[in-house]
């Protein structure tokens, strides 16, 4: 069943050109390819695969043959896509040159094999892929050392030095890329540094894994991963000035190497995403809109032959920063169409976004509806997080979702629910090690709220606001306000205005 799902997903993802090429290549397969073509035509027409109905309609195919036919169809589709992708992906063409060299080597034509390896190395250098260059160079050494080609005496020392230098570069690139990956994994698990201890541990981790380097000696790929690492490091420290600085370096790297925009499109798109994330966190509205428009223009540029992965990435980042724009410009009500569209996308998840992404989106939608004063929808989205069985994913969001849920129940007058849930949430925060001064202040307020005089709450709201302002003098406590503008909420209560009006006043 799992293989059928993979096959159906692959067929559904095919473009018109890819389908046409598959049919052309399949037509050349003759009788041998008849069964997998029959299966392809069935899935293409039906959009799914009911194996019982398929076998009933094609009785020449035995049930025992079907697994092999599915596997063969999957491989044949990938082969056909690979064939037409050579024109779009020079990395595939580089590997093809290497494959040709292998074939020629097996035929004993060593000189021609070396010619194709030379082509592979040149193309690998053009697309900045040291690993492919090393692969070709290593095979070149094998040919030169095993067979007399007439060039061994000249090339021995050159090949040895070149491969050693390549390996050194690859190891350095690997160290940078590992650091970037590990930091991303750490962020998904823990989120931002919450205190001095977290900050110290993060800094130790970063500099322990950061290799020694000379910045002027780094190539494009090494600089790319280095800037990525600094972006994640400063983002987790909430150092948004440095975060923006390195995100901009990442983006400008593609201005320095414009030929790499088409080769490394996903990294180019991500550079825009990280610039926007830094500007949103720093509340830089004008600059945010400038780069947001660049992202929108990129997504709408039909001159780029985007692949499925790139389209999904553009959709993801357009979604993230479309919601962020609502927060930044306080468009809780004016962006009605966009909000409805975002809800529909999240419900259907057509891009198969992972659970970590979805948890963040649920929370942001909850905050949007809280800002609008639509508390039922606020709870709907927050409950999607609270009812999530995995609590080790996005721990900070998990915790703030529970706090915002309690505040929402307060707005709805659900005192009994608050009394019941407050101990449970308190224990959850202790377990997650997320109980800071802001959370304690809110808990104390909510726990006592059932005894407050509902007709004279302004002094209580003012007291909580004064306490929170004092708490925010501690930089580590300010992170709580990244997820919910608590001070604007309190101002809306004190001044008897909407939260939207309060946010605009505080801006």
Question: Which characteristics define this entry?
Answer:
single chain, 507 residues, mainly alpha, 26 helices
Estimate percent helicity: over 70%
Tell me the β content.
under 5%
Number of continuous helical runs: 26
Please report the total strand number as a whole number: 0
pLDDT under 50 segments (min length 5)?
none
Biggest sheet overview:
none
Whole-number average pLDDT?
Answer: 89
Order of helices and strands: HHHHHHHHHHHHHHHHHHHHHHHHHH
Structure at a glance:
By secondary structure, this protein is mainly α. It has 26 helices and no strands. The relative contact order is 0.04.
Q: How would the blueprint of this fold be written?
A:
Blueprint: H1 2-13, H2 16-27, H3 34-46, H4 51-57, H5 66-85, H6 90-106, H7 110-126, H8 130-146, H9 152-190, H10 196-209, H11 220-236, H12 240-256, H13 260-263, H14 265-281, H15 285-299, H16 308-328, H17 336-348, H18 355-372, H19 375-386, H20 395-411, H21 415-432, H22 437-449, H23 458-471, H24 480-483, H25 486-494, H26 499-506
């Amino acid at each position: 069943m799992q293989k059928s799902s993979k096959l159906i997903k692959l067929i559904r993802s095919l473009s018109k050109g890819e389908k046409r090429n598959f049919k052309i290549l399949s037509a050349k397969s003759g009788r041998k390819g008849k069964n997998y073509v029959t299966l392809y035509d069935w899935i293409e027409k039906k959009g799914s695969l009911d194996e019982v109905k398929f076998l009933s309609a094609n009785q020449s195919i035995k049930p025992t043959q079907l697994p092999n036919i599915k596997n063969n169809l999957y491989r044949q589709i990938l082969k056909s896509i690979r064939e037409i992708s050579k024109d779009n992906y020079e990395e595939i063409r580089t590997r093809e040159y290497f494959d040709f060299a292998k074939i020629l080597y097996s035929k004993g034509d060593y000189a021609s094999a070396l010619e194709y390896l030379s082509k592979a190395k040149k193309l690998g250098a053009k697309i900045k892929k040291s690993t492919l260059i090393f692969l070709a160079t290593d095979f070149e050494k094998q040919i030169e050392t095993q067979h007399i080609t007439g060039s061994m005496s000249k090339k021995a020392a050159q090949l040895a030095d070149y491969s050693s230098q390549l390996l050194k570069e690859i190891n350095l690139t690997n160290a940078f890329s590992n650091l970037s990956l590990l930091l991303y994994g750490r962020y998904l698990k823990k989120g931002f540094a919450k205190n001095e201890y977290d900050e110290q541990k993060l800094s130790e981790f970063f500099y322990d894994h950061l290799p020694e380097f000379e910045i002027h000696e780094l190539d494009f790929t090494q600089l790319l991963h280095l800037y990525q690492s600094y972006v994640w490091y400063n983002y987790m420290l909430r150092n948004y000035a440095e975060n923006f600085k390195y995100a901009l370096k990442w983006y400008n790297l593609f201005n320095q190497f414009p030929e790499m925009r088409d080769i490394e499109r996903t990294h180019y798109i991500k550079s825009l995403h990280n610039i926007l994330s830094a500007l949103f966190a720093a509340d830089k509205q004008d600059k945010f809109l400038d780069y947001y428009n660049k992202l929108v223009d990129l997504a709408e540029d039909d001159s780029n032959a985007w692949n499925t992965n790139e389209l999904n990435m553009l959709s993801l980042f357009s979604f993230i920063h479309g919601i962020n724009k609502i927060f930044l410009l306080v468009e809780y009500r004016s962006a009605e169409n966009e909000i409805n569209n975002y809800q529909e996308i999240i419900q259907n998840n057509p891009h198969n976004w992972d659970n970590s992404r979805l948890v963040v989106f649920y929370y942001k939608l909850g905050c949007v509806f809280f800002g609008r004063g639509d508390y039922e929808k606020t709870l709907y989205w927050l409950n999607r997080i609270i009812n999530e069985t995995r609590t080790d994913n996005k721990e900070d969001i998990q915790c703030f979702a529970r706090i915002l849920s309690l505040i929402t129940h307060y707005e709805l007058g659900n005192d009994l629910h608050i009394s019941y849930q407050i101990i449970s949430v308190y224990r959850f925060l202790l377990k997650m090690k997320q109980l800071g001064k802001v959370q304690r202040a809110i808990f104390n307020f909510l726990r006592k709220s059932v005894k407050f005089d509902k007709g004279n709450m302004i002094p209580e709201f003012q007291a909580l606001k004064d306490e929170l302002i004092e708490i925010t003098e501690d930089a580590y406590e300010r992170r709580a306000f990244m997820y919910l503008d608590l001070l604007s909420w309190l101002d809306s209560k004190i001044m008897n205005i909407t939260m939207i009006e309060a946010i605009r006043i505080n801006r």
